Amino acid sequence: MEIISNSCPSTHFPVAHKAISLDIKGNKTDIVICKYDDNFLVMVTQIGCMGSILRARKEESVSVDPTFNVSVVFGKRDEPYLLACARQLIENISCGSSRPLVLSLGLKDHSPGTLKDVISAVIDNRLW
Predict the structure, then answer these.
(1) Which of 63, 65, 107 lies closest to 86 in space, CA to CA?
(2) pTM reported for the whole predicted model
(3) 47 near 108, Cβ under 8 Å?
């Protein structure tokens, strides 16, 4: 995984965001992370469009162990690795924030290795 370019959090755009471009398994991958007042938006694309859109959030409960809810809003519903990717990210986000996650994945390759690299890149450039 090689980072081609990296931009720092913008102060000009009213929403805090980061945009990076990197190579994952031979595919140019663009990642945009936005921090809104009520949620995080993470867009990852290798195909130039949004792809599948997922929503993930931490459920508030009285139990000690947290519960996470991940659902496909639009796109492929038969890709368990996409759900696992959203789950990993919301678990990481919930350590520092209570905001839910909207995740867009437009990937050429849905292999576990690609998704692990995506998760690592997002966590390394997080805004939470």
Answers:
(1) 107
(2) 0.87
(3) yes
User: CA 25 to CA 107: how far, in whole Å?
Assistant: 11
Cβ atoms 21, 5 nearer than 8 A = yes
Nearest Cα to 99, choosing from 42, 49, 46?
42
Q: Which residues make Cβ contacts (< 8 Å) with residue 109, sequence separation at least 6?
A: 25, 27, 46
Is residue 9 left, alpha or beta, with left meaning phi > 0 and alpha meaning psi from -120 to 50? beta
Residue environment code for 85-100, b if the CB has 16+ CB neighbours within 10 A, otherwise e: bbbbbbebbbeebebb
Tens-place pLDDT, residues 49-58: 999 999 999 9
Residue 2 pLDDT exceeds 70: no
